[in-house]
Amino acid sequence: MKTVAVVLAAGSGSRMNSDVKKQYMEIGGKPLIYYSLKTFEESMIDDIVLVVSKGDIDYVRTEIVQKYGFDKVTAIVEGGLYRYHSVRLGLEAAAPDCDYAFIHDGARPFVTKDIILRALHAVKEYGACVVGMPVKDTIKIADEKGFAATTPDRNLTWMVQTPQVFSYKMILELYQRLDREEGELMAKGINITDDAMVVEYFSDKKIKLVEGAYTNIKITTPEDIPAAEAILKEWKS
């Protein structure tokens, strides 16, 4: 069995209001991307493919991969215009004999080895799984005018995280199909926001929900930095 982690670090981080891309911003004296890479490096994952912004390959290779000794990084590739482009490029850079692909947002620094292991057990059994947690708040579905339309059962709603994990051959083929049919989807107004949507749209494969952690947050806006620093302090204590 061979596994690959495709770690996405190609975002611009425009909502951070910073000249430094969020994946390179420091928390706890290390760049944000360091933490998820370290966890995958120390886990049972075999290879890591790192997807970065255009022009960042040399910087990332020298200042992150080599500096911190991430020996499992087998490829560093440039991402595309949208997240789903970056995922496809990362998958295509993986070794063709991979069995399972873990797709992870590099802006989620607090993935753990336990989360990775739970996801591995699930993907081996079901072929597709996503990490997430049950929501704590009541969710409202809005109509097109901004009024509350329906209220789904809170017991059945989850907030989805990463990694999202799939049979490698299946997810690669589906992302390549997405690439071929991208124009058709855009014409229909379909916006692909995560990997599970690709599976849901192009196949009838059921996706298992796997418990992640409420601390497995995504760093998106400046308000997330203090929360990340507090979580990191707990990690180190």
What's this model, at a glance?
The chain is 35% helix and 23% strand. With 237 residues, it is of the alpha/beta class. It has a seven-stranded mixed beta sheet, sandwiched between helices. The protein has a two-stranded antiparallel ribbon with strand order 2-3. It has a two-stranded antiparallel sheet with strand order 8-9.
Description:
Helices cover 35% and strands 23% of the residues. The chain has 237 residues and is an alpha/beta fold. A hairpin with a 2-residue loop joins strand 2 (26-27) and strand 3. It contains eight helices and eleven strands. The radius of gyration is 18 Å and the shape is globular. The strands form three sheets. Strands 5-4-1-6-10-7-11 form a seven-stranded mixed sheet, sandwiched between helices. Strands 2-3 form a two-stranded antiparallel sheet. It has helices spanning 32-41, 57-66, 83-92, 113-126, 168-180, 182-187, 195-202, 224-236, and strands spanning 3-9, 26-27, 30-31, 47-52, 73-78, 100-105, 128-134, 141-142, 148-150, 158-167, 208-211.
Topology summary:
Elements: E1 3-9, E2 26-27, E3 30-31, H1 32-41, E4 47-52, H2 57-66, E5 73-78, H3 83-92, E6 100-105, H4 113-126, E7 128-134, E8 141-142, E9 148-150, E10 158-167, H5 168-180, H6 182-187, H7 195-202, E11 208-211, H8 224-236
Parallel strand pairs: 1-4, 1-6, 4-5, 7-11
Antiparallel strand pairs: 2-3, 6-10, 7-10, 8-9
